[in-house]
Inverse folding.
C-alpha cells in the first residue's frame, strides 16, 4: 500500500544576527513556531577561556561561556561536562581538536533551545570548512584490530577499544559541530572527521547532532556498538557517514545532504560502509543496522558537485542491514557494492547483506539505483536465480531468487522531495525539512524486522511530518557562517 502525506511548506525567517524574522498568522502551525523552527541560538560571553594540553581532573564548561581549544586538548582519567548553551571554538591558527581518551568520559548534553556549539574561532563571515580538526570520542568496546585500534592525531598517539560491548563514554546530545574536518598532519585516515566515535559501546547513545561544513567526513564510527539517532550531516566535503573497523550498532534517522558543496574525491559516496579501512580483515565484521536514512546527493540541489554520485557504498568486506530509507539525487548509483566479497554476503548466512523497504528517486545512471560490475553476478557468489541473474533481480525481489529483498520502491512522483524549500539560502529563509507528499509518494515502512532501539515513524527516510520532525527544533542552525554568538 502507498501512503500519501500532504503537509504545508512553512516559510520562516531566521531572526538572529542579520537574519530577519517575518512571520504571519498564516505561517503558524503551532502556538510557538519560533521556538521550534531554528529562530533561536545560543548567546554567550565571548571573553575566551583557553583550554590546552591534557585535562586530567573532572572539569565543567559552563553555560554562556566561550572556550577555545588551543591545539589538541586531551581528556584522560577524568569526566568533561559541557553544560547547555556553551560555545567551544577550535583555534584555526593551529591544528585544534578535543579528544576524549578511552580512560575518560564526556557529558555534553544540550537542549533543543540551548544546544552546545563547536565551531571555528574565526570571525563571522570568514569561517571555512577545515578550520579545525574535530571531536574524537574513544571507548572500551570491541573493534576488529584486536580491540586496540591506534590513532595518531597531530603526533599524539591513542588507542581505542576493549572488551566491554555495553560500555559508555558518556552522553552527547543536542550538539552542533561546524567547520571541522581538517586532516591531521600525521595523515591518519581515521581522524579525518568532524565527529569520530572509536570503539564506543552500546551504553552510549548519540543523538540530535548537527555536523556542517566538514572538510572531510561528517560522522564516523570505528568499531564499537554505540547507538546513533537523529544526525544531520550537511555540506560534508567527503563522506557524510563512515562506518568501519567492526562497528555493530544501531543507526536511525540519519540525514546526509549535499547542498551547494564541492569535493576533491571523484565518485564520492554519502555513506561508506567497510570492514577495515586500516589493518587486517578481521572479526568482528562491520555490520550496522540502519533505518530511516535519507541521502540527498550531488544532483539534488543546483551548485552541488556531481562527483557526489553514489548514495551508499559497501566495500572491503563490510555488510549491513538497511531499511526504510530514501536515496535521491545521485548521478550513478543509490547502492554500490564495491567488491565480490560483498556480493557473496547477499546470500543467506552470517552478516547477510539486507536492503529492504527502501525508496529511490532521481538516480540518473540506473533506475534501479543499484549496480555492480559486471551486471551478471559472477559464478555463484550472488543471490541469483539463473545464469543471467543480476543484482536487479535481487534488489527487486524477483521470484526464484533464493534471498531476494522485499519492499524496495523505484518509482516516485516526478519531483521527489520538495526541492524548492530544501535547496538554496537557508539563513535568510529557513527550509521545510520535512516531507511534502504532494510531490512524494512513499510506500509504507516496515519495523517488524527491527529491535527495540528503533522508533516507528510513519514514513520512510529521516524527513518527517511538519508536526513532529526532529529537524525543526531551534538546535538546527543554518546561519553558522555569519553567526555572532557574543552578547
Amino acid at each position: 500500500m502507498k501512503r500519501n502525506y500532504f503537509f504545508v511548506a512553512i516559510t520562516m525567517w531566521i531572526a538572529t544576527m542579520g537574519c530577519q524574522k517575518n512571520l504571519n498568522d498564516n505561517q503558524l502551525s503551532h502556538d510557538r513556531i519560533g521556538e521550534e523552527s531554528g529562530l533561536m541560538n545560543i548567546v554567550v560571553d565571548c571573553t575566551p577561556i583557553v583550554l590546552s594540553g591534557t585535562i586530567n581532573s573532572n572539569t565543567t564548561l559552563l553555560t554562556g561561556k566561550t572556550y577555545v581549544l588551543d591545539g589538541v586538548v586531551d581528556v584522560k582519567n577524568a569526566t568533561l561536562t559541557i553544560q547547555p548553551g556553551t560555545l567551544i571554538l577550535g583555534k584555526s591558527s593551529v591544528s585544534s581538536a578535543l579528544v576524549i581518551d578511552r580512560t575518560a568520559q564526556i557529558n555534553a548534553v544540550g537542549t533543543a533551545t540551548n544546544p552546545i556549539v563547536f565551531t571555528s574561532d574565526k570571525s563571522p563571515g570568514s569561517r571555512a570548512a577545515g578550520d579545525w580538526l574535530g571531536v574524537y570520542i574513544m571507548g572500551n568496546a570491541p573493534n576488529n584490530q584486536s580491540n586496540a585500534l591506534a590513532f595518531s592525531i597531530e603526533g599524539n598517539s591513542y588507542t581505542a577499544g576493549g572488551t566491554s560491548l555495553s560500555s559508555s563514554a558518556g552522553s552527547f546530545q543536542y550538539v552542533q559541530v561546524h567547520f571541522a574536518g581538517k586532516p591531521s598532519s600525521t595523515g591518519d585516515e581515521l581522524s579525518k572527521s568532524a565527529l569520530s566515535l572509536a570503539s564506543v559501546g552500546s551504553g552510549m547513545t548519540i543523538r540530535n547532532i548537527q555536523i556542517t561544513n566538514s572538510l572531510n567526513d561528517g560522522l564516523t564510527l570505528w568499531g564499537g556498538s554505540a547507538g546513533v539517532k537523529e544526525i544531520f550531516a550537511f555540506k560534508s566535503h567527503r563522506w557524510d557517514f563512515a562506518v568501519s573497523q567492526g562497528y555493530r550498532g544501531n543507526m536511525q534517522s540519519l540525514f546526509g545532504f549535499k547542498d551547494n558543496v564541492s569535493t576533491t574525491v571523484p565518485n564520492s559516496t554519502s555513506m561508506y560502509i567497510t570492514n577495515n579501512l586500516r589493518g587486517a580483515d578481521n572479526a568482528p565484521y562491520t555490520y550496522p543496522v540502519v533505518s530511516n536514512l535519507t541521502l540527498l546527493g550531488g544532483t539534488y540541489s543546483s551548485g552541488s558537485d556531481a562527483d557526489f554520485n553514489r548514495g551508499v557504498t559497501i566495500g572491503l568486506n563490510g555488510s549491513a542491514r538497511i531499511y526504510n530509507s530514501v536515496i535521491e539525487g545521485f548521478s550513478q548509483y543509490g547502492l554500490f557494492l564495491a567488491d565480490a566479497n560483498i556480493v557473496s554476503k547477499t546470500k543467506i548466512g552470517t552478516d547477510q547483506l539486507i536492503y529492504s523497504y527502501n525508496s529511490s528517486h532521481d538516480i540518473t545512471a540506473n533506475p534501479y539505483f543499484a549496480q555492480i560490475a559486471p551486471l551478471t553476478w559472477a559464478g555463484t557468489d550472488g543471490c541469483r536465480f539463473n545464469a543471467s541473474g543480476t543484482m536487479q533481480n535481487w534488489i527487486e525481489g524477483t521470484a526464484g531468487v533464493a534471498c531476494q529483498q522485499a519492499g524496495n520502491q523505484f518509482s516516485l512522483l516526478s519531483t521527489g522531495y520538495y526541492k524548492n524549500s530544501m535547496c538554496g539560502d537557508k539563513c535568510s529563509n529557513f527550509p521545510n525539512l520535512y516531507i511534502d507528499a504532494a510531490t512524494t509518494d512513499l510506500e509504507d515502512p516496515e519495523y517488524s524486522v527491527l529491535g527495540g532501539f528503533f522508533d516507528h515513524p510513519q514514513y520512510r527516510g529521516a524527513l518527517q511530518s511538519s508536526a513532529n520532525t526532529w529537524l525543526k527544533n531551534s538546535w538546527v542552525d543554518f546561519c553558522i557562517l555569519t553567526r555572532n554568538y557574543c552578547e
Observations:
- The chain has two domains: 1-40+253-487, 51-238.
- Residues 1-39, 367-376 have pLDDT under 50 and may be disordered.
- Helices lie at 340-344, 391-396.
